[in-house]
Design goal:
281 residues, Thiol Ester Dehydrase, Chain A, 35% strand, 10-stranded antiparallel sheet, 5 helices
């Protein structure tokens, strides 16, 4: 079925997401939070909420955008994610998200959809503005334009060691835990389904789970542990991550408030998030 490009630039329906502190803590566990990060896990300390928790609120809006476009959900892969945080989500409450498909690029065999999602709280205040790059396998060749090549605002220096490096193993159950925050794609749970769509090694970790590890590590390494200090974070998903892989996040401060970031899998010495950068307050 052909992609419906008539939806480009038209906002979709808003989706409300009511959540408890338990949902925010479950998300934190899904992206690797440990007991020494108790402020994100224990209600007696708030708890604080990781800013990327807004992704849990955004799943319905993102799914609706994919459906409106007419893409095959079984064949999509998350290609990249940018989040601009305006305020931290409350420990409990309501978030409202709405999506707009900005553009669809033609990559010959593949297509790339760029989806913008605004997430607001119950008072209407903007919490986050997110942009997702979604790769649609088998949907290219429709005669559209390819994306323009634009350099990232920050690049990893080749002549010096990182200012911080954080190594952390994912668990074999990481994807099964992360999916409880809303992304129930069987690609991350069902070995038979994963093999059917080309991942014969088994279910892969969600791109947004790896991204959540990146967010946590950026907060630790670049923000002094303060989640409110993280303003923008962006990165491209280059290679799959399997549950059980060890992630190494490295960060280079290029100027006050601007960081270049990279995530590698230790076991394969393979960069899995590249072109990444963060802006801190």
């Amino acid at each position: 079925m052909a992609l419906d490009l008539s939806i480009l630039g038209i906002a979709g329906a808003p989706f409300s997401f009511d959540y408890r502190w338990q949902d925010a803590a479950l998300y934190a566990l899904g992206v690797g939070a440990k007991r020494n990060e108790l402020e994100f896990l224990y209600e007696g300390l708030g708890p604080k909420v990781l800013p990327s928790f807004v992704s849990a609120a955004n799943y319905p809006a993102l799914g609706e955008a994919i459906d409106r476009l007419g893409a095959n959900k079984a064949m999509l892969v998350h290609g990249g994610q940018k989040m601009v945080f305006h305020k931290l989500p409350k420990p409990s409450g309501r978030l409202v998200s709405a999506s707009t498909v900005r553009v669809v690029y033609d990559l010959k065999r593949l297509a790339q959809m760029i989806v913008d999602i605004e997430t607001r709280d119950e008072e209407g205040a903007l919490v986050a503005a997110c942009t997702s790059s979604i790769i649609l396998r088998g949907e290219g060749g429709f005669g559209g334009d390819p994306p323009a090549k634009e350099p990232a605002p920050a690049s990893v220096p080749k002549d010096r060691a990182p200012d911080f490096s954080i190594e952390e193993a994912t668990s074999l159950e990481q994807a099964l835990l992360f999916r409880l925050s809303g992304d129930l794609n069987p690609l991350h749970a069902d070995p038979a389904f994963a093999a059917e769509v080309g991942f014969t090694q088994g279910p892969i970790l969600h791109g947004l789970a790896t991204y959540g590890f990146l967010v946590r590590h950026a907060i630790q390494g670049a923000c002094g542990g303060d989640p409110a200090a993280l303003h923008v974070i962006d990165g491209q998903f280059r290679k799959p991550v399997w549950p059980g892989d060890t992630l190494i996040t490295s960060g280079w401060q290029l100027q006050p408030g601007l960081w270049a970031l990279q995530v590698k899998v230790k076991e394969r010495d393979e960069a899995v998030i590249t072109g990444a950068w963060a802006q801190t307050r």
